[in-house]
Amino acid sequence: MKVLFIGGTGNISSAVSRFALSQGIDLYHLNRGTGKQEIAGAKSIHADIKNAAAAANVLEGHTWDAVVDWIGFLPADVERDIALFAGKTKQYIFISSASVYQKPVTHPIITESTPLANPFWEYSRNKIACEERLMKEYRDSGFPATIVRPSLTYDTVIPLAFGGWTDYTIIDRMKKGKPVIVPGDGTSIWQTTHADDFAKGFVPLIGHQQTMGHAFHITTDELLTWNQYYQATAAAAGVTANIVHIPSEDISRIAEKLGMGGIRGTLWGDKSWSVIFDNSKIKRFAPGYCATIPFAQGIRRTLAYFEADPARCRVNDEANDTAAKILNEWNKH
Q1: Backbone dihedral angles phi then psi of residue 95, each to the nearest 5 degrees
Q2: How would you label 17-49 residue by residue, b for 16+ Cβ within 10 Å and e otherwise?
Q3: Which of 141, 251, 304, 323 has the highest local Cβ count within 10 Å?
Q4: Tens of pLDDT along 92-106?
C-alpha cells in the first residue's frame, strides 16, 4: 500500500510510522522538512500543508491507498484536505482525540457511540467540528473518512495530569523532592497508552475497506489511578513522589486568577474524570490487538529517551513558577 502521513514524526506518529514500515507499507511523509527527526525507510515530500497551493503542487500526480492527517486541528484543515485528496485517496484517516467524548461524564464506560460534547475545552470542540464535517462529506459524497481518537498516548512525552509533557520539569521536581501537584485526590481512573501499543491497533485500520464512516479509539486496557501514575513515574526516576493533592477546580481557579489560562480545559475537559475506554470495536476490526506495555515499563522507556540526550532534560522555569504559584495560593487557603 502507498500511504501518506501528513506529519509522521511526532510523539505518536513516529511509532506508527516505524510499525507501518515493518508491515511493508510504502510510506511517505509530507512535512516542511525543518525537523531533525527522520524515520528510516519513509520517503519525504516537503511542503507546508498550511499552504494548500504548495501542497497541491508537490502532490501532483500522486494517488494514495490511504492518507493520514496527524496535525489537523481545525475545520479549515479538514476542508483543505477534502479539496486536496477527494478522488485521490481510497481512505482518509483523521486523528481526532478521545477528549471529544461527553463531559461531564454521565457513564464511565466510554464506547465510540458515547456522545461528543465538551464545553470545557476548545481544542476538543474543534476536533468535534472536524469530525462532523468529515462525516457530512462521507454521507454527501462518499469521501472515504475514518476517524481515530487517541487518548493520552505517550512515548517521547511524560503523560501526567499536571506538570508533565515535553520537558523534564516534573522529573527534576521529583528528584529534588519538590512537591508535585496531583489533581483531586488522585483516585480518578485513567488509561494511558504507549505509542508502540497504539500503533499495533492503528496500522491494521490503514486500507481496511470496512472502516469508512467509522470512528475508533485505541487505548490500553490497563486501569490506573493518577496516584499510581505519579508513583510509577517517580519510581522510574528512582525516587518517591512528594505528592500534594489539589482539587481540579481549585487548580483551574487559581491559574485563572494568576492569569495562567489553558489549564481548565485539559483538566475539566479531559483528565479529571474517571473513564474506562471499551476497546471492543478496535479489537473487532484489528483482530489480535492487545496493548502489552504496562505503564511502569513504558515510563521507564520514556525517561531513558529523555536522559539519552541532555538537551531533552530541559527544565522549564515557567512551569516551575506556575507550580510554585499554585502551591502557594493553595497553602494560603
Answers
A1: -90, 105
A2: bbbbbeeebebbbbbeeeeeeebeebeeeebeb
A3: 251
A4: 999 999 999 999 999
Q: Does any domain span residue 284?
A: no
* Alpha carbons within 13 A on the beta-carbon side of 5: 28
Residue 176 lies in a domain: yes
Question: Which set of grid coordinates corresponds to residue 106?
Answer: 454521565
Residue 6, C-beta contacts closer than 8 angstroms, at least 6 positions apart: 30, 31, 49, 67, 68, 69, 70, 71, 72, 81
Assess whether 165 and 146 both reside in one domain.
no
pTM of the model: 0.95
- pLDDT digit string, tens, across residues 175-232: 999 999 999 999 999 999 999 999 999 999 999 999 999 999 999 999 999 999 999 9
Q: Residue 198 sits in which domain range?
A: 2-153+192-218
The reply to whether 88 falls in a domain is yes
Q: Are residues 163 and 197 located together in one domain of the fold?
A: no
Q: What is the DSSP string of 1-63?
A: -EEEEES-SSTTHHHHHHHHHHTT-EEEEEE-S-SS---TTPEEEE--TTSHHHHHHHHTT--
User: Exposed, middle or buried, 315 (CB in 10 Å: 0-12/13-18/19+)?
Assistant: middle
Same domain? 205 vs 147: yes
Query: Over the chain, what is the mean pLDDT?
Result: 95
